[in-house]
Amino acid sequence: MNKRKICVVTGSRAEYGLLYWLLKEIETDKKLELQLIVTGMHLSPEFGLTYKEIEKDFKIEKKINIDLSSDTSVGISKSIGVAQSYLAEAYNKLEPDIILVVGDRYEVFGASIAAMISKIPIAHIHGGEITKGSWDDNIRHCISKLAHLHFVATKEYKRRVIQLGEMPERVFLIGGLGIENIKKMKLLSKIEFEKSINFKLNKKNMLVTFHPETIGKNSSKKHFKELLDALSNLKDTNIIFTKSNSDLHGKAINKMIDQFCSKHKKKTISFASLGQLNYLSALKHVDMVIGNSSSGILEAPSFKLATLNIGDRQTGRIKAKSIVDCFPKKKDIINSINKIYSRNFQMSLQIVRNPYDKGLTSKKITKVLKNFNIKNITEKIFYDL
User: How confident is the model over 222-243, as a mean pLDDT?
Assistant: First the structure.
């Protein structure tokens, strides 16, 4: 019996972390064959050459360098074009039955365009979501329109994908992909975690992940400075920074992180990539996540952990009650930090429920990937409401 070949494309550290257990499930399934393509930040020294970590876990079929040396609009547009070109060639050689992609990164957009032109069915995870402050929003909906199978995290997101004209029988509610890591991974103790990152925790501890808002006015540097000003005078508080992705103006944010850490060496540390184990272990041991990363929305609530969500980048996503939204102003940030540390808010965290927790997602996705009839699936019909 011929195995169905599932080609998974990953371009970022966070994306690979979300995919890990699904990749394991595909790899061990007797009816499926895993083909893994690694691109984007995984191959960049600036972002930690994370493909080396992937190679410890899986066989990589293709490494595709799309040149992330520029974070300008022109540079990113060129990277999308390079990704589309080289991935089309890779698909031609690998002859996959299904291309599997996650989310809304521009590398994934290039991968999806190449698959659509090559008439290869696309399975898309985490469609239907809204992030007002990022062009990821536009890219995500574009990928949904290119895709043929959809794996969504909530009922509202399922409704939204169908609203885009996708057939209801091809949209599957599976929950948030990253929650499986939390349930299955043996996280580090406090002592193990401190040793792993070579950094001692304090009485109070924060994890900061801030990405540029790529839609609207170019104000990300200004917003991040407001955050750094709010953090600079905190007492008995240590701060772990994870750096920005290869987004528009991401290099400027990372430079500001380096400057801040150089000025506050005793209480700060930064990482281009913490790795999934260290990142989730950080969520276990810090008091809050600060910034505008999707992980603060999707994963942090499963730890009964507060998230201080700054600005508009995640506006539109369904949020647990552990998430505090605030304006990117120093005063608002300080007030929100004080709110999170208040006794009443800390008590409320104990009953927080993560709306993205729908059980183990990898088995649900794998079942569809191996059993769904994909004959003529690329001949899409617009579904009218």
Answer: 94
